[in-house]
Every structure is written in structure tokens, then in C-alpha cells.
Amino acid sequence: MSKLEVSEEGQAVEEQQQIRRDYVDPPPTPLLDLAELKRWSFYRALIAEFVATLLFLYVTVATVIGHKKQSDACDGVGLLGIAWAFGGMIFILVYCSAGISGGHINPAVTFGLFLARKVSLVRAAAYIVAQCLGAISGVGLVKAFMRHHYNTLGGGANFVVSGYSKGTSLGAEIIGTFVLVYTVFSATDPKRSARDSHVPVLAPLPIGFAVFMVHLATIPITGTGINPARSFGAAVVFNNEKVWNDQWIFWVGPFVGALAAAAYHQFVLRASTVKALGPFRSNPSN
Fold first, then answer.
1. pLDDT digits 0-9 by tens, 79-132
2. Phi/psi at 279 (nearest 5 deg)?
3. Which of 235, 225, 109, 234 has its CA nearest to residue 166?
4. Which of 66, 111, 122, 231 is most buried (most C-beta within 10 Å)?
5. Rounded CA gap, 193 and 173, in Å?
């Protein structure tokens, strides 16, 4: 068989695969898309990320402080309520901002999507700055409204809880963020949306539930970070030496977890590497 015949056969297989598909994978985003800086939609997305992260930190940290100021263990929302506050706010805010900015509200999510070439480096860096500023502002509002309890009850900051090692805490942050970012990839996968179109599952719902479940598991270990902006905002406003000493865990852990989730989804589940090698694409369902 000549090279021309092989080429024509490969092209025919590619066309057949496109016909069978009922979804379209968006092309990779340019690494440096400087043209974004000239678009109002880019700055509108930054504002959306800033406001969403501000609201997220305000409600969740206020919930944490409100729980801690209760003298009776049966009063207040309890740890279950705190987990619901974090998961519920993510559900609400992702639902509200997804159409504008993608509803990241988390530098680890932004980092994972950047690695998958779903956002440019320019947008990813700008998002992370907006998220961190929003987090600082949100925690600042909590301190302004609940100053005494905020200062005396830990400020809702993340740190390694007594009885756990830094290694254990780092592992908890890595696994927790893996669960979250993996859920984000799965919930927004165009292939899943087409295949399961008969199942009306709203993408923000599983993402919010992922945050809820991870908080149930890791609140006793680190207070649950899985969001560097959340941990950084609380650390800046509370400004405690112990919190700053442990801060690296809440950046390294989430970023490593996001990297692992992006690699797992893109190269194992979606087989992006295999798809790039034409001779190995024997199964159209991949």
C-alpha cells in the first residue's frame, strides 16, 4: 500500500470519526493570548472572579467564626454546616459566574485548566491575582464586622492542626484538590455533556458537592484549603506566624493536586496523547 493510499485512508477514518461524534473539543488556547488584554470581556471576567471570591470568603469565613464563638457544641452550624457553607457557596457562585469567567474562584482550578490549555497564561495569571485580591477583601469584611471574635478565634485561617504532621497535611491538600479539579474537568467535559445529555446534571452541582465532601474529610487536618486564594486571603488579614509558617502547604498541595488531576483527565481518561498519534487512533469512542 502506497503512502498516498495510507494518507487517504487515514483522512477517511478521521472524517468518519468526526461524523460519529456529537460533540466538539475546543481547540487549545494560545499560550500567550495578548489580544485578550484589548477585550472588555477579559476585564469583565476578572471583575467576576474578584467579586465571586470576595463573596465566597465573606460567607464561609463568617460561618467559621460564627461556629467557633458558640459556647455549646450543639449550638451553631457545626462542622457539617461549615462544609455545607463552602460547598453551597461554590455551587451558587460557579452557577452565577460560569458564563462570564468560567467560575474558577480558585487558583488551583485556574492552574489545572491552564495546564489543559483551556485558558491562556495571561488569563490564568490575571485570574489568580483577582482571586487573591477578592479573598483578602472578603476576609477583610469579616474582620470589619466581627473584629473581636475574628481576632480571638483564629480568623478562619488554614494551618496544620495539632496532632498532624506537615507531610500528612500536604497529602490531604493534594488529594482534596485532586478530587475538586478532577470533578471540574469531568463536569465540564464536552464529551460527557453530549453523551449524557439525557441526564440534566448542572455542572456547578457536582463541583459544589466535591468541595463539600472534601471539607468533611479534611477540616480536622488543615481546616481544608484546596484553594490557595482562600488560604492566602485569611493569612494576610489574620497575619499570624503559625499561619504563615504553614502557608506553603496550601499552595504546593493544591497546585500538585491540580497538576495530577489535569494529567489524569487529559492523558488517561481522554487519551489526548494517543489521539495526537494518528496510527494509534483505532477506537472512535476515545
1. 899 999 999 999 999 999 999 999 999 999 999 999 999 999 999 999 999 999
2. -60, -20
3. 225
4. 231
5. 29
Inside any domain, residue 12: no
**Single-letter amino acid code for the residue at 233:** G
Give this prediction's pTM: 0.84
DSSP state at residue 164: S
Q: Which long-range contacts (CB under 8 A, 24 or more apart) does 164-167 make?
A: 164/221, 164/222, 166/246, 166/249
Residue 260 lies in a domain: yes
Structurally, the chain folds into a number of domains equal to 1
Q: For residues 125 and 118, give the distance between their C-alpha atoms in angstroms, rounded to a whole number.
A: 13
Q: Cα separation of 258 and 174, whole Å? A: 8
State the residue range of the domain holding 177: 31-268
pLDDT value of position 60: 96
Q: Examine residue 22 and state whether it is found in any structural domain, yes or no.
A: no
CATH code at position 123: 1.20.1080.10
Asked if residue 3 belongs to a domain, the reply is no
DSSP secondary-structure letter at 2? -
CB 26 within 8 A of CB 270: no
Report how far residue 150's alpha carbon sits from residue 59's, in angstroms, rounded to the nearest whole number. Answer: 13
